[in-house]
Design goal:
Low-confidence stretches: none
Order of helices and strands: EEEEEEEEEEHEEHEEEEHHHHHHHHHHHH
Number of domains: 3
Radius of gyration: 31 Å
Helix content: 40-55%
Largest sheet: 5 strands, antiparallel
Mean pLDDT: 90
Number of helices: 14
Structural class: alpha+beta
Number of strands: 16
Distance between the termini: 69 Å
Shape: elongated
């Protein structure tokens, strides 16, 4: 994590005891890092990072109306804490930073970072002030969704402004977020760092990371995967829209190398659009359903050929999807699969003229309505022609022939 954000990796580091009593940590101290964290500095999405360190998790608190429950199952589990500099100025900026952090964690395979499962939690420190001066800081703990992060910050900013405008003081404290009531509530007064009486844990050894081969910076840099901002840049150059790129960002298995390799073979803009659309919808759906188990059945050359068939008009959009699904299941040549399934569109004018004649003769009332100025009737006739051809007619060519005959 530290290497990916350009932080300074510590050589010497140690663990400290952070002393305080709260029901979620009844032994009276938490193992953490204070003076010598693993990482100092770095930036992510333009936000400066103060430090990244390891500490032990506490128990989970469930606060009810007049009592609380404590679940100790996660207590003592190691967690990574990342602290930013006070440079975030809006709820949206905080939410965007948190989303980027989740993407990076998943890209690095540092964890699933699932907010709902508590694998990633956000704690927002909020203060307001005038003329660039920060006011008293309030911490909102354990926010477990990006929406909650943004709403809690917006609520807390407004709450603090109202207090100050009334001439009252903001109390330095820890607050929780009430999802139902959409408001923060006081949990306990917040201590200053010196109140925690940090001191090095006497039972844990000091660490010199340069003595651990796997922790050397050059080794860590060589093992980094393609980072999200680099992948964004590369996929944008391939023609993916900004929105579609986000779908591909957490692909740690290389499953999206198929559309990337296919796009290297395809130069026509419309054909590239077909590849991108099928990748975002159908390919991504398979990856979510079965982890992309049969993705190797589709070769980049075959995928590119499918795009050519669609743009040339030999396949309708629904037929292209059907062929793609068949390729995913058993591989094969897209044109051969389309012919097997009878999906090749007829564009032969003589064959389509006879279909158009049959449709007009079977639907004289609708034909008369069109001639009388009801243009929407033409779509009905096109639909009947597609039905007559069992879906094999090229709808664009059929529409043109019907228009000519009805005139």
């Amino acid at each position: 994590m530290g290497t990916s954000v350009g932080g300074t990796l510590a050589d010497f580091t140690e663990f400290d005891r952070k002393n305080y009593f709260y029901p979620d940590i009844p032994k009276g101290y938490q193992i953490s890092q204070y003076q010598y964290p693993l990482i100092k500095g770095g930036t992510l999405k333009g936000v400066e990072i103060t430090r990244v360190h390891l500490e032990e998790d506490t128990a989970r608190s469930y606060h009810k109306e007049d009592y609380s429950l404590i679940d100790f199952n996660r207590a003592g589990v190691p967690l990574m804490e990342l602290v930013t500099e006070p440079v975030i100025h809006s709820a949206k900026e905080a939410g965007d930073f948190a989303r980027e952090l989740q993407i990076l964690l998943r890209t690095l395979r540092a964890g699933e970072a699932n907010m709902e499962k508590g694998q990633m939690r956000i704690e927002a420190n909020i203060s307001v002030g005038k003329e660039g001066k920060r006011g008293t800081k309030v911490e909102v703990k354990n926010l477990n969704s990006f929406r909650s992060v943004e709403r809690a910050i917006e609520y807390e900013v407004n709450r603090q402004i109202e207090l100050l405008e009334k001439g009252e003081k903001v109390v330095q404290e820890t607050r929780g977020w009430d999802e139902v009531g959409q408001k923060t509530f006081s949990q306990r007064l917040k201590e200053e760092s010196h109140d925690y009486r940090y001191f090095p844990d006497p039972d844990l050894p000091k660490l010199h990371l340069s003595e651990i081969p796997d922790m050397r910076e050059e080794v860590l840099k060589s093992e980094l995967p393609e980072l999200p901002w680099l992948r964004r840049e590369r996929l944008a150059k391939l023609g993916f829209s900004a929105e579609s790129v986000e779908v591909f960002l957490t692909d740690t298995e290389g499953l999206f190398s198929l559309p990337e390799k296919t796009l290297e073979l395809v130069k026509d803009e419309k054909e590239r659009e077909v590849v991108i659309n099928l990748s975002i919808t159908n390919l991504f759906a398979h990856i979510k359903q079965d982890g992309g188990a049969k993705i190797k059945n589709i070769l980049p050359g075959a995928f590119a050929k499918l795009a050519v068939l669609r743009v040339s008009g030999l396949l309708s959009s629904s037929a292209a999807v059907a062929v793609f699904e068949s390729m995913y299941e058993k591989g094969g040549d897209p044109e051969s699969l389309a012919r097997e399934k009878g999906l090749i569109q007829q564009s032969d004018s003589k064959a389509l003229e006879s279909i158009a004649d049959a449709v007009i003769s079977k639907n004289p009332t609708v034909a008369a309505e069109y001639r009388g100025g009801k243009l929407a009737s033409l779509q009905f006739l096109v639909g009947q022609g597609m039905r007559e051809s069992k879906g094999s007619a090229n709808p664009g060519v059929l529409r043109r022939i019907l228009e000519e005959k009805l005139k």
